[in-house]
Amino acid sequence: RPFSCSQCGKAFGKKAHLTRHLRVHTGERPFPCPHCGRRFRQRIHLRSHLRTHTTPPAQRPFSCPQCGRGFGRKAHLARHLLVHTGTRPHACARCGRRFSSKTNLGRH
Question: What family classification does the UniProt entry report for this protein (predicted)?
């Protein structure tokens, strides 16, 4: 893998993948949502987010009792509820820092 990150040493096979990775360190979010202005590091994350603006309420039958946000799957509502409770059930084995999702723990 010829392209490596000068910040953390992670290596990539393509320069574009390194460029995308560098945004983790710089905080750059070059892809804004045209509807709400929220910004994303990767175009695919923006595409996924755009569905929140276009999915009809009938396709989001699971509503949050706290804020009213709708979800298409019960599991997604359960994950969202952690935002309101502050629950962080996933702990890092090395440092003990806690996270609300396994995904965030993995990124850490």
Answer: Belongs to the krueppel C2H2-type zinc-finger protein family.
